[in-house]
Amino acid sequence: MKKLILEMRLNEYKLKSANANIPYTPDEIAQAAFESRKAGASIVHFHARENDGAACFSPEVYAECAAKIREKCDILIDVTLGQVNVAGDDKRLAHIEFMAKSAKTKPDFAAVDTGSTNVDAYDYVKKEFKSTHRAYVNSVDTCIHLINKMQLWGVQPSISCWTIPFLRTADALIDCGVLAVPATLQIVLCDGGILGGHPNTPQGMLSMYEHMPLDKKIEWFVCAKEGNLMSAAAMAIQLGGHLSPGLGDYGYPEMGSPDNGHLADAFATFSRQMGREVATPQETRAMIMAG
To answer: What is the pTM of this model?
Structure first.
């Protein structure tokens, strides 16, 4: 079987109250990347943060995080565009453009979501929505702009798909030549009251997989926002997919609230037990990177 690519989603916007090991500072993010690499991960995805955990959108801080990761190890770097927290296509790209000016800080990948959805969470205990206004909007025009700019700067778009329409749009973007291949497509499963994606279950993942454009040159991943990825991971491993767990999505209290390195080790071990060795960064680059 082909090797499995393990990407660790280090922090997103989660606070240490969810897991004390969630990294905030550039040094913490770099150390989490290093520990993840030692455990078998070949990609890390991160969000820049202030020292108190608040969201940070400074291009300089993003560049500092990337530089410190590169000083520690050879893991590939995937960064966010800020989801609903940054308005305006060019503002969402500002840190990518800044980072791409230097080989020491240029990310290998940056996330593009090829569709729109609601990201409000519902509280099933209180029987009320935690918010009612968080619409994550990505028009086709926006997707084309983000992809074109990234590819111009030598940063590969990492496509995230919350629902089947996202997958169909990604397929069309490949078909018309906007999105270069090989391409990476990530299934975003949702739990913990987030309703904007398919359920974090093997069945939820399979319903997405059935619409994956496997006739194109792609590799696909699965992650789970607000939930344990293990059940869906088992099916993804069997079907030839790749994994993107991490403390940014879920604290894994049932596993003793591990750090990202120990979590990476758990998923790498699970993959090996199912017959798939994990890929190194060099092997990952050969599998999924254009050029």
So the answer is: 0.96
